[in-house]
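Dear U.,

For the methods section draft, I wanted the exact inputs and outputs in one place so we can describe them consistently. I've listed the two proteins in the order they'll appear in the manuscript figures. Please don't edit the token lines directly; just add comments below if something needs changing.

First protein:
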Amino acid sequence: MLQKTVGIVLHVLKYNDASNIVDIYTRENGRVSFLVSVPRSRKSAVRSVLFQPLSMIEFEADYRPRASLHRIKEAKSWCPFRTLPYDPYKSAIAMFLAEFLCRALHEEAENRPLFAYLEHSVRWLDECESNFSNFHLVFLMRFSRFLGLYPNIENYRQGCFFDMLNACFVSSRPLHGAFLPPEDASRIGLLMRMNYETMHLFGMNRQERSRCLSVINDYYRLHLPDFPALKSLDVLKELFS
């Protein structure tokens, strides 16, 4: 059945000389894998340049019941980027977040609030002109809501530990090893208060930003089964240092 929809590109894998497998988070069907023919002419209905990390595309696909791969027939840009592919810092963020989402999102079902969050975030990153160094930190913290992993910060008091396993603050050191000491725990509340519009007001040096990113990554790895080490994580840390 042919269906027109929109989606955000997460990952591209070469399948053979004639086709690629593209993972896309779609508005109507959640995460879906598509078979995309490698174009052999400039007049092709599907161009490879469309499938960059976090690209937003509008496309028509042939959905087959019980099939693991569906074929894209036509595709075009849904939201042409103005800066994201051309700014090395934004491109690094996009590459990291696309890899993260590819590992974290497995839901093959409609989730309009999540799709709206992803769309808004990608558009904001492309349109902002400066002060986006903390963007990925804010994105990851707020994304945790959609996975049911949002930390409980109600009981925070100065000197508390953060129990990463139970996602809450505690007054004494947990018996297990998955916790943050008070110095690191105090940054959780800071991160939770940030949003895209206000994040530039929160002072954070390179070491603090790198530490926060490592902690957030460890938090997701602790709660998501088989969540691997991300190859783009070190690239992002290096670029912002």
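Second protein (the one for the lower panel):
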Amino acid sequence: MSFCPQPFNRIEIYENGDVYNCCPPFISNYCIGNIYQNSFDEIWNGEKIQELRRKIINSDFSLCADICQRKMNEETRLPEYNEIMQKYPEEINVSSDNSCNVKCKICRDDCLRTEYNKDKLDEEIKNIWLPIFKDARIIRFGCSGEPFASYKESSLIKYTAEKYPDIKFHFHTNGILGNEKKLKDLKVYDKIDTITVSLHSASIWTYNKIVRGGNYFKVMQNIKLYSEMKKNGLLKHFRMIFVVYEDNYKEMEKFAKLALKYNAQAEFWALRKTNNTEVCTNYEKYSVVNKNHKHHKKLLKILENPIFDNENIILYPELKELRSR
């Protein structure tokens, strides 16, 4: 019997207010409501999520996509996992703003900075967002933009830290702006569970090719900071992300060594058609995971390296499958 705890303890909220229990592609874009159109009580125990929970309880994953990797054993089911949940979600992914300070070739073609009316935003945070967080154990920011470049997400972070001092944070960042001063200004320096840095390179030359408008030296400065924070018990998990494609695959081994040097977990993801950038829309041209790519055999040779056996080096499914062959 298979089971998944996601519909019982977790949500993702997107910029337009849509709510999902999982990454939308993993759950076939099964939206359970919208925080700007429905009360959260209607969303959290509404008909759509009850249907999803009922199916999962019966090991029916027909509402989920085949690419989902989260199916678990029946042992993960707790007694309180029912169609109606008394407590609000423990884990929340916030993607409330797509604003970012850089243009990564695999992510976006333009920097985005959204302007907000401060008074209206404060009212929205206090009346709509904060009540949703009341039972949260961990909140993740940076799923769609750069949390430290976004006025909205920075405000959300600070308000949340003040109102719920026991909540821990997970920040997914490009690593440029999240320095010690910024973390202390947001009152989260000692409230962080995980920091994930998307770097995609192991040298300044490759970094500058991929991250347009970035600052490699500031990123490395902050990576050293996060490493020290983890060493001193201020950070539970430190992860570094590398999306593998034609421009950077030769640096996979160096990136793995760089992550290990700073006591981080290195995660290698395959390129996906997730947006309209030149790289993603020309997937076949840039994806070395594609068996027809001219450098595919070189990637296979790189994956033979024993460094990828290290428990702190994670290959996501497509790459893991290639290596296992």
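Candidate sentences for the figure legend, describing the second protein: Residues 106 and 154 are 24 Å apart (CA to CA). Residues 216-231 form the longest helix (16 residues).

Thanks,
Y.
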